[in-house]
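Reopening this one. Same input as before:
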Amino acid sequence: MESNVNKEELVVNPEYEDQTPVKLDKKDLNKMAWRSLLLQASFNYERMQAGGWLYSMAPALEKIHKKKEDLSKSMKMHLEFFNTHPFLVTFVMGIVAAMEGNKNDTETIRGIKVATMGPLGGIGDALFWLTLLPISAGIGASLAIDGSVAGPIIFLIMFNIVHFGLRFGLMHYGYRTGVNSIGILKESTKLVSRAASILGLTVVGALIASYINLSLDVVIKAGEAEVNLQEGVLDQIMPKMLPLGYAFLMYYLLKKGWSPLALIGITVVFGVAGQYLGLF
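Same output, byte for byte:
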């Protein structure tokens, strides 16, 4: 959803008794960033991340609103439905904290939250789940398969350097740029999301060829001639065709609503049965 809110349209909130602007410091922003780690601790299907959002915003709201009545009104507004990517949420928090500090209108703040939570959800999924996680887990798993204890350590370090760097960096960036960040986000959303998706899908394709080991051990006899079905036929058509087909089959079943646990069970049964029958 896009917001038509411009900086010039921002007005002071008439609902607040105290209209004095309040600035936050780095300590306040860092405290909010740490609290954002618990964004989904009270996740529910009615308001989703609203409880965690308010818990993260609480240090800023308590410093900004000195009067209990103002604080109460602000907290009630921040308990409304909210849902975005849990790693990039600090960007929205920074913007909203800047607007709360300026005592901007409640409807404007609500509009900013709604306008940003959707795009950030898409960018976060592409950036973290389709790009960073496959790359860092792939490198860590490669080391672990070779017996190196550094595998899981490398994975955790690589993933969390990016994760915490963005979590804290976006909090400060969002606060500094305030509502001007909305225009930047709207211009860059499609470009960033598309670039991250292309890179992530390329990595996933490489992982399919590297880590799904599926080949047939079947030999076809025609008179005195013998043809290995895998090497003589399938590999000639396209190498790693069976792993690719199996990955597409699992994706298709997932889209049809099959449980990941059920697909894991099917894969185990399929592998054991194939080995027992001499197919693999």
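So the earlier flakiness isn't reproducible anymore. For the record, The mean pLDDT is 83.
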